[in-house]
């Protein structure tokens, strides 16, 4: 299996690359600057400059682009660009998503974003950008996309336990009643989805056990 990880130098991207390489997959890191990953192959190119030729031949492309504050809109703009490039192909697109659009009630009327009070403006911009990306994907019919939401608490330096639970549009809680997952366990979930292709044109969510 051939996988490309876009924005592979980010915290999530590096761990997704590492997980995929350790499983023996053929991984290409797509980065804007010097490669910081363990990928066997590297393409130095800005996300928004990627073309159909650049991504031809990959089984899966992972959109791991993150942004902050005034640049938060790059999150959904990157997803829009990649869906445009991959439209009509068999290459699957897996998007590293956000938790803000997860529902917090059984009636699916309130989301994490709806309940957010006192969030810094810069953080709110990121949450809204992720939600925008998902809303856009839900309108796409000619790309084999999957959007993977982490838990509400996404721990960059959390331990790799090797275990996680998978859900859908509603926020899950672990055995301790918390919505939390480490970047390392999230990377496992992303690569599992890359290998299985079990949730095409769906949003899934993951939480620790």
Provide a concise account of the structure shown:
The chain has 209 residues and is an alpha/beta fold.
Strand content: 15-25%
Look at the structure and give the mean pLDDT. Answer: 96
Strand order of the largest sheet: 3-2-1-4-5-6-10-8
> Which residues sit in consecutive blocks of at least 5 with pLDDT less than 50?
none
Quaternary structure: single chain
Name of the level-1 CATH class: Alpha Beta
Number of helices: 6
Number of domains: 1
Task: Bin the helical content.
Answer: 25-40%
Determine the CATH topology.
Answer: Rossmann fold
Based on CA inertia axes, which overall geometry fits?
Answer: globular
**The named CATH superfamily:** NAD(P)-binding Rossmann-like Domain
CATH architecture: 3-Layer(aba) Sandwich
Q: Give me the Rg, rounded.
A: 16 Å
How many strand units? Answer: 10
Query: Structural class per helix/strand content?
Result: alpha/beta
**What is the string of helix and strand elements?**
EHEEHEHEHHEEEEHE
Distance from first to last alpha carbon: 28 Å
Report the major sheet. Answer: 8 strands, mixed
Key features of this structure:
alpha/beta; two-stranded parallel sheet; Polyketide_Oxido-like; single chain; Rossmann fold; eight-stranded mixed sheet; 10 strands; globular; 209 residues
């Amino acid at each position: 299996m051939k996988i490309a990880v876009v924005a592979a130098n980010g915290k999530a991207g590096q761990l997704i690359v590492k997980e995929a390489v350790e499983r023996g997959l053929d991984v290409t890191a797509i980065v804007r600057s010097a490669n910081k990953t363990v990928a066997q192959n590297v393409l130095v190119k800005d996300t928004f400059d990627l073309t159909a030729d650049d991504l031809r031949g990959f089984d899966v492309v992972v959109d791991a682009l993150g942004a902050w504050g005034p640049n938060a809109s790059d999150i959904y703009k990157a997803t829009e660009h990649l869906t445009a490039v991959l439209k009509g192909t068999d290459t699957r697109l897996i998007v590293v998503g956000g938790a803000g659009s997860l529902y917090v009630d059984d009636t699916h009327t309130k989301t994490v974003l709806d309940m957010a009070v006192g969030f810094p403006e810069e953080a709110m911009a990121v949450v809204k950008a992720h939600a925008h990306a998902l809303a856009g994907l839900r309108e796409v019919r000619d790309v084999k996309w999957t959007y993977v939401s982490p838990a509400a608490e996404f721990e960059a330096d959390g331990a790799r336990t090797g275990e996680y639970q998978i859900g859908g549009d509603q926020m899950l809680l672990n055995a301790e009643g918390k919505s939390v997952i480490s970047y390392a366990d999230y990377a496992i979930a992303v690569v599992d989805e890359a290998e299985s292709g079990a949730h095409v044109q769906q949003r899934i969510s993951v939480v620790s056990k």
